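Quick log. Single chain, no ligands specified.
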Amino acid sequence: MLTPPLLRPASHPLRASNPPRRRALLSIAHLALLGAVGLPRTVLAQSIQAAPLTTAQMAWRAMSRLGYGPSPALVQSLQAAPSARDWSMQQVDSAYTASQQPPAIAADLTDFNAPLPQLVAAARRERELRNQVRLERQSLIAPAMGSATTAAQPDAPSLAQQALRRMDFSAAPEPQSFSLRLTQQTAAWRLGSCSQPALEDPLLARMTEFWFNHLNVFAGKGAVRPFVGHYLVNIIRPHAMGKFEDLLLASARHPAMLLYLDQAQSVADGTPGAQGRTRGLNENYARELMELHTLGVNGGYSQTDVHELARVLTGWTVDPTAESGFRFAPRLHDNAPKRLLGQIFPANARSAGEQEGIDAIRLLARHPATARRISLRLAQFFVADKPTPALVQQLSQSFLSSGGDLRTVMKVLLSSSDFWAQDNRLFKTPLDFACSALAAVTTPTADRRGLTLAMGFLAGAGQPLHGWQTPDGYAFDAATWLAPEALTRRADFALNLARQLPEPEFLKPYFSGTTLASVAQERPALRAGLMLASPDFMYK
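-> predicted structure:
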């Protein structure tokens, strides 16, 4: 597993700050450290258990865990409900209803959601142009090379590419920058959807994050990059509040997943290949499907099961001309009998071929070990880094009895006492922090300055959007993300984002007197940023 960059030594962002700003940042960073790691656990436990959550604390928890934190619109929505508990339960059905509607995508961002055949054709054109440039460059360099070899320097970004990095998509698309354009558009939509309740239902944005992370694909893998945004809004989002097995099957058939974990290359052993060679199994997807997506590493399967599942899934590949991007190729399928988790595949003649894979994925999705793994991860994401076994068991039972219905599981989670227990604190990941800061201080603007700042912050903080290389997805516990240098990165981002903005008055009812008093001592121009850099704002 990759170590997030924020846990490695980094240059200190405060060194470049002017003296008053540096003093303010150091002051607030000190408060954040004290609130996060400075008190002994026994003292924290005694103080936390002294009283239940106040009304304001319950509201903060609901908005920060079922969305990305308070915004004026979200505060107004919660205040219209009888209580934070009632509002929270309402969000489950609201998120499901929103998931069944098309996503709201700004007109200049729609390229990433084009039909898959168009994405395939444009990606192919981009590769051809890049190969042509590379060959032309080699032909120019070769005659000029004498006895000494000089390394070719990368070209400086074109003006169009620089505009894309500012999330300015007003210019006509450049074919050779197609993937960059899609990557930036997807990021712009994602950051807007997590920070603007008018654009996306807050809990749906949360669940989309959770399931994209659980079924992670990596935008840095070239073949995958053009399809990440399409996968996000056409596979993850519409299934995020439905049945788990439907989500799993949809993910298994999308080009982003087929290419990311090499399932498109997996064929029956001995299949004829190019130049008289033979091809065979690739077990990458089968392994991650069992280890990460369903059963878990201790889920009771063996390496033989991985091998057999890979055989079951042979023939599942990409169709560049199909609207779904998927096809089953019978000639690439292993038609011999297989035994997976004690069951024979195919069970009968009618379930042979593609149906074998569907049956196997449904078997894994409905397994008790899968119920436990999904329930644990949901509890860690929404309740506590170390949730109680009783809560996980309760969620597992609801998962199994409902056939993996995620609305049912979420209602059980939100009705539990654990969700509202004061000692079940959660530290914000960098993405949490970026989205909550955007929600608190920004409104949509043509230049998308806040989104660009957030992209840079996330890259430096170790959680770049769609940039987690390994299929396990990023961690969301405090042990991974809470470090002194991480807090100063957050403070620097907050000050830049909120520069010259007025204090967000709607946040003050949720902040402690200590934080408000500390912020009030600083210059007005710094106060909004310091509120976002405070210890109160670090938790959800």
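The CA atoms of residues 502 and 524 lie 8 Å apart.
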